[in-house]
Amino acid sequence: MNLNDSTNKTWLQQIFNNTSVAVLVVDKNRKILEINMALCEMWGYEYNELIHQSAECLHVSTESYLNFGQIAFHKVLNNTAFSIDYQFKKKDGSLFWVNISGDPIQNTNEVLWMITDINAKKIAEEKLNNQHLFLQNIIDGVTDNVFVINTDYSIALMNQSARSLLDPQYIQDKEKPKCYEVSHKQHQPCNDSEHPCPLKRVLHSQQTEKERHKHIKSNGSTQIVELTATPLKNDSGEIYAIIESAHDISSLVESQNKLRERAKELDYRAHYDALTSLSNRTLFIDRLNQAIKYAHRENNKVAIFFIDLDHFKEINDSLGHSMGDLVLKQSALRLQQSVRDMDSVARLGGDEFTIIIDRITDTDILAHIATKIIHTISQPIHIDKHKLYVSASIGISLYPDDGNTVEILLRNADAAMYKAKNEGRNTYQYYTEELTHKAFEHISLESSLHHALLAKNELVVFYQPQINTISQQLIGMEALVRWDHPDVGLISPAQFIPLAEKTGLIIPIGEQVLNIATKQISQWHQEYTINGRIAINLSTKQLQQKDIVHRIACILKNNQCKAEWLELEVTEGYIMSNPQQAINTLQKFQDMGISIAIDDFGTGYSSLAYLKRLPINKLKIDQSFIRDITTDEDDRAIVIAIIALAKSMKLNVIAEGVETIEQNDFLKKEGCSNVQGFLYAKPMPNDQILAFFQRTIGMDQLPV
Hints:
By secondary structure, the chain is α+β, with helices and mostly antiparallel strands. The protein has 26 helices and 26 strands. It folds into four domains: 6-117, Beta-Lactamase (2-Layer Sandwich), CATH 3.30.450.20; 139-252, Beta-Lactamase (2-Layer Sandwich), CATH 3.30.450; 272-431, Reverse transcriptase/Diguanylate cyclase domain (Alpha-Beta Plaits, 2-Layer Sandwich); 447-693, TIM Barrel. A hairpin with a 5-residue loop joins strand 1 and strand 2.
């Protein structure tokens, strides 16, 4: 093309000047050969100011001019079409954006550039980008995951926290990741049943929705989030996207779960027995109330079984609480197996159980159930190498016949159970009106016993002499508590000692006996020459006090009673409940100078392995073996064995309950010369024992 030709120049100028697109023709050196009026208006120059000038005058800077030549001009000269958005500078120095595309002019080294002003578009885009950046900076400062999700599930925007969920291997289109790819590492939208889709719900409801989801992080860990999805609407009110914020509530959910588990645990503890998993007293009472209400509506009956395990205390005391717990668990299981699924078994505490038998139409079934329970419980229990036996005493009360409240029915069943105990155990008894009177007597006795501890002279100590049958001399005495009731008179220990053991009153009673007896011993030693020691029985509950050694030491000191004047009698049950603790405690007594005797020896479950380690001085043969010693071969064999055991271990031995000359002679013959019993003297109060001293001290022969 020869632009110096006037005809061609006129023709080209007409084309240039009649198009709205700026046109620029430059040669290989980038000199301006031709421009149109649109270009002049675009840059603000006159035609003559640009023609034949270097195109550099159109650029922002020399650097921009050179850069454009590198990325665009030479490509076009090499016959490569090119288009680019580029920034230029107007005559007034202002900058503006254009889209410039170039084509080589054939058979020349010239380039034709077509230029469109896109400055307004660029400003709008920059404004939008600035807004986008501003928004991005804002949401990046939010710790919650934030997404803007289009209706096709693609993510238009997300914050830095949300990007922590990105895992490239799950994203098909990196430019337009889907929300379910990012949050859940899956290739399809959320399932309505497992993860309800917030987008679907918002599109359906046209309002903000909330959901809980489990998000999977890029490291594989999970977080529980609460999603809040808010619709974004155009001017026509149509939803084109949603803003979804995901608040991490993992810690909250974990805390709620822990609280829920804790609440369940507390509820379980409040209603179930920790050892046996049976209902406890609280749940039992609630269920009994419900059973009574149902029975009242349906006009039928409810039975309450009150069950106490016979001989359990001996097992617990002799073999220890851990063995006792195993027996209780086995017994609880057997009780459950003995009743219907609809019946409710509960443990009230200790070895006491209850059963609710409801919806009874025929009371004959109760005898069948009670018999089955007695048979099942009485079967031997095998634990380790032990073969243990317990039995059940059952009391039965019936709604509405024996009462219409929980308290009355339970009280009456308890009374019936005690009747079963008195009838020989391992049996059942129904409630009768007579048992109510006995229960009131029991309550009255307990109240009076509390009063006796506070009153003066109600609890008194009797003394029973202990005699050597060879020398016929007094060798000591046993101190025995008696209750001198102001209205009833003397009450047998057989009546109130079990009650004291059950209520815990045995501890203050035992301390009173120690105090009274040691004062008396001290006084006697000041006035008489007394041979031997005063034996005082200590209950298991007393001995289990942590400060029992200190307590007795204080009593001895306060009453000026020497330790060598005292002998403490302890049971086999106490020793075997915790052998090592018993050894430690008894050794402290012995170190003080106190003598130790095992009372009622032969009735418990003593282990010879522990017996040889015990710091003891004496074995006391229980009167149950002495009673039939002249007629029962088994009793004779047991007594002979105990005497031989004592001699082999270099221990003293004494027999209690000696009442006949034949018993006395047998014991003397077998080598047990120390005895106590009615043959020589009954337990006597203080004034009578003084008369006994005066008759016997210094005499060669005691009256038999």
